[in-house]
Amino acid sequence: MEPIVGKKDDNLRHSTEMIEEAAGNGAGLVVLPELCNSGYVFETRKEAFALSEEVPGGPTTEAWIQIASRHNLHIVAGINERHGDALYNSAVVIGPRGHIGTFRKVHLWNEENLFFEPGNLGFPVFKTPIGRIGTFICYDGWFPESYRLCALQGADIVCIPTNWVPIPGQDKDREAMANILIMAGAHSNSVFIAAADRVGTERAQPFVGQSLIVSYTGWPMAGPASADKEEIIYADANLADARRKRNWNEYNQVLRDRRGDVYDEMLGSRVTPGWY
User: Fold this and answer.
1) Please, which pLDDT band fits residue 169 given cuts at 50, 70 and 90?
2) 70, 94, 105, 129: which could form a disulfide with 137 (CB 3.0–4.6 Å)?
3) Catalytic residues, which ones?
4) How do beta strands 74-83 and 86-95 pair?
5) What is the pTM of this model?
């Protein structure tokens, strides 16, 4: 998707059109890019604040809730969240019965630090009828702890709204570095991953596209999508496979084989284990 900074009403309308198209083609879980309601490259905090909304209760989440209810969908999408006087780069998780939960980006990238507060909700995993959904945003994917904390709580799939930018030194014809990280994260944690990136150039900042859906094995199931054009990619996944088939052989299972006697089993967090 290509959101346009400042065009909040147009972005919402366009996002609903794309969700409707995906639902019409049989999608049960739809993932949209980072900050897809507001655009990304803000010039001032005042501009960022003007394009934010409360979650839930704001017009964007309410519209997505209505679509989810109408089509029996689950949606994970990036949103510019206002909470009092604080702004968060967030992902909202929505189901057929309404708002399920919210993630707030933990690791802020570049000038995001001028506009947003660091996320304060950890890495929650949401139990839904279609499986356990974890989520984080863009730069969070550069930290292996993000994937692992979702997996340790029993996530079957991690949904990643993102706005990837070119990485220095990357040849334009090579696959995005982020996709390599996602494949590794899926493989080393036995989780499906669905990453939705934006395309286009916004205020001189290009984005790389290449959205990707990855199996718990680490191999792509769909994508990479186009690097410069809007595109919906689809994959047919049985999320239970992330649990049922995560044994690599008779002796090895990647989460079970962790050495809690050598390093902290839960990464020092207070999350409740649920991977078994």
Assistant:
1) confident
2) 105
3) 34, 105, 138
4) antiparallel
5) 0.95
> Which domains, from first to last, does the chain contain?
8-244 (3.60.110.10)
What's the 3-state SS for the chain? CCCCCCCHHHHHHHHHHHHHHHHHCCCCEEECCCCCCCCCCCCCHHHHHHCCECCCCCHHHHHHHHHHHHHCCEEEEEEEEEECCEEEEEEEEEECCEEEEEEECCCCCCCHHHHCCCCCCCCCEEEECCEEEEECCHHHHHCHHHHHHHHHCCCCEEEEEECCCCCCCCCCCCCCHHHHHHHHHHHHHCCEEEEEECCCEECCEECCCCCEEECCCCCEEECCCCCCCCCCCCCCCCCCHHHHCCECCCCCECCCCCCCCCCCCCCCCCCCCCCC
Confidence of residue 72 (pLDDT cuts 50, 70, 90): very high
Render pLDDT for 96-139 as a digit per residue (tens, 0 to 9): 999 999 999 999 999 999 999 999 999 999 999 999 999 999 99
